[in-house]
Specification:
Layout (H helix, E strand, L loop, with lengths): L1 E2 L8 H8 L6 E4 L7 H13 L5 E4 L4 H7 L7 E4 L1 H11 L5 H21 L4 E3 L2 E3 L1
Parallel strand pairs: 2-3, 2-4, 4-5
Antiparallel strand pairs: 1-6, 5-6
Helix pairs in contact: 3-5
Length: 131
């Protein structure tokens, strides 16, 4: 597993894309469109920057299932971005106790790790390159 870390708008997505080389890949977008105009501009910029041969999956919550069903199974998967995914999860859990929120997020992270390990590819995330 490779982790690509950096500040907001520091080039993590661009770098993760470069790790895929010329291979077709799957781009798993976790940002939702109903947030605010600035986020919509970021989403639009990311859409334009993806290579045309890539498949896009938009999934803001059930990222582990999206990783499992991403095809082809040998293609790298760029998960962009894990921090937005966790924020989405926390938003859905906002009425829960903090301990329950933490447990749910940790379970989701374990599920993502397990989903990546079952597949024979690398999943790149804002994040992570999951084997």
């Amino acid at each position: 597993m490779t982790v690509v870390l950096g500040g907001a708008r520091s080039g993590k997505s661009r770098y993760a894309q470069s790790l895929c080389g010329d291979r077709p890949a799957v781009y798993l977008a976790t940002a939702t469109l109903d947030i605010d105009p600035e986020m919509q501009q970021r989403i639009d910029r990311h859409r334009r920057s993806r290579p045309c041969g890539w498949t896009t999956i938009e999934e803001g919550l059930d990222v582990p299932s999206a990783v499992r069903r991403a095809e082809p199974s040998a293609a790298p998967v760029v998960v962009d971005c894990v921090s937005i995914w966790v924020a989405n999860l926390l938003w859905t859990l906002r009425d829960e106790r903090p301990a329950d929120q933490e447990e749910a997020v940790l379970r989701a992270a374990d599920s993502l790790s397990a989903a990546a390990q079952v597949r024979d590819f690398q999943a790149l995330a804002d994040g992570y390159v999951l084997p």
